[in-house]
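Let's practice the habit of predicting before peeking. Look at the sequence and jot down your guess about where helices and strands might fall. Then scroll down.
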Amino acid sequence: MFEDNRKMFEAWWKAGARQVFLRPNDLCAGMPFTRGLERLIYDKFQASRKFRIFGTDYDGSCGVRNIDLEYYIVARMIHAPDRSFEELENEYYSAYGAAAPAEPCRTAGYPDIPRKCVNIISSGERSERESLEKLLLN
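Done guessing? Here is the structure:
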């Protein structure tokens, strides 16, 4: 969960709120490359569950096929919240049969890029697109 969300949920909890409606903009993307945010999106959802989440509303970008795994993880984690990220990821890739990428080539291959990008964006240093371009192209 992004640090600012965790702090906000904790403050509301201390104020007496006992239910959370999660509405992140995690799926809003118009980028031509895979972002690798699947695990961050999953982790944020799981962390919000301790605050008794009762609903979600994920915005998205129609036609952005390079983040299909992100969409899949969101849909399946809402349907089966007790399943692990790895189970959902394996389920997604199983549809590709023999053409599925080997595990080292999946999201585990670039775990630091999303977190570095979040840190850069949170600092206000640059936009999401500029951050990802810097991290991926340098």
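How did you do? The CA atoms of residues 93 and 100 lie 6 Å apart.
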